[in-house]
Amino acid sequence: MKISIKKIFFVFGILSSLVFISSCTKEKTETSVKQELLIDLEKLQNSVIEFQKIAKAESSSNVIQKCFKENRLLYKKVEWAIEYFSPETARFMNGPALDELEVEENKFLPPNGFQVMEELIFPVYNTVNKTELQREIAVMSANIMQVKQHLNAITISDNHIIDAARFQVYRIIALGITGFDSPIAFQSVNEIIPSLSSVEKITLKTCKDNSKKSVALKQNLKKTITESNAYCKDNNNFDTFDRALFIRTYLNPISKILLQLQKQNNIPNVNKTNAINPNSITLFEKNTFDVNAFIPSDEYFYSKEKVSLGSKLFYDVNISKDQRRSCASCHNPEKAFTDGQKTNISLEGGVLNRNTPTLTYAGFQNALFWDLRQPDLEKQSMEVIANKEEMHGSFKNIIPIVTENSTYKTLFAKAFPKEKKVEEWQLQNAIASYIRSLNDFDSKFDQYIRGDSEDFSEQEKLGFNLFAGKAKCATCHFIPLFNGTVPPNYNKTEQEVIGTPATKKGIAISPDLGKYNQYKMPQLKNAFKTPSLRNTAKTAPYMHNGVYTTLEEVVDFYNKGGGKGLGYSVENQTLPFEKLNLSKKEELALVAFMKTLTDVKYQ
After folding, report:
1. Matching SUPFAM superfamilies, A to Z (predicted)?
2. How many Cβ atoms are within 10 Å of 51's Cβ, its own excluded?
3. Is 388 a member of any domain?
């Protein structure tokens, strides 16, 4: 049979095309998450270099701001990896425009990154800032190079990719939609889109199981993220964005699908100590947070048996010197473990300097007391009990009682089965364990946001959306703990300088210098821990000095811009001092929302 040369070339052409298509498909399939990440980082760096050229030549606000926004969107595509694998560098790429304090060494590092640039070019760019802007862009370029080198040198495994994807969703909830990292430009809603698109891309590339269930989950992930991105495009106004709806309808379902895909693809959890339970389906479950991430070391591990022993010790007056005061004397469980007083009374009848904070949810902090002077609950309880004004006792004094009392002996044996001798550290750990148990996560808000209930009024929804948006509350009181422990890693608890007044109608800031008493750094004058707002409706009075008696007064203080907004001299105030311009309706909605943070047992 004769075959023409023409036909041979035709067949050869088809085969060549098939080989080419096959090789391209194979190459595309085999492009790893790491390779695509490095490509995206290269794009970001090239864009930053171009930004530097534009910043040198241009004076137009519109041009500079447009270029900045484009760079931010490129950054959001790789944020999942930079924050996860290079957190220290990430702090100087997109951290708050505040000094990074290294208090132990009594030094500080000035901020760098996008938020510093944002302050230079928004709301209107002034060419006076040109030199500083170019310097910041150069630092950004150097940091990107450092990240590229680091990521190029490490192995990025499947379990780390899925873990990073899940943490990126948590970052969007706790930091992204609140405007934490876009406090002036208010680009947070637009930036959700590239962030979630990256979560989709890296997850689909990592989850290779093609079983019917896995394919259905992947399709569901694509559908949900496509719909969430469309919602962001259609509702990109920062002030009116419905965060409650967005979390319930999109972010929580995405969190659930990611966990289901991880399990379906037999991808193990990352072996690390973290505040977030890797098996929790969303950021809002009862079992999401692990108190063991906040203990001093492994022997202090939380257990129900330690809680039982700690509960008895907590209510035992023998722990104080005069045997008249227990821990519960100042931390009344009926008042969500506060005392209802502006400041409490000392053992000798004097007035203590600071308000008694709630112990509920206190286990989720890396620093205790208003001035953050102790790192854990064990040391906190020891200091309070030893304090001459508060209890003037010691754990040492109660050891004979624990050793000889039959009830205590039984409780101790169960709590510390390997320990034959009662020591002070064990009693400290028991009381701390009891305090770590005071976390119910069953408030009206919790039940609504995780979809267990629809009982949430329009006023309460407005209040939450204001809290996480226009009012900027969630940029310090981070969702969902509503304290100052920074998500999503929760390894640092922050302080703020808000300019709290000495008296309700006074003309001066409180004289209490707060954390400055421990570390003589000017940035820390009048700095205090950001407390949890959970159960806040039951924990009045408010502030470190108990100056405000109602939540309405607190909201009014923040609405006016804190101490500086009231006209006090607070040069180091970290709270934005511009007025929030909340209407009376919005102020009342904020209060209504905060009341939904009350656990069932305190209602």
Report:
1. Cytochrome c (SSF46626)
2. 22
3. yes
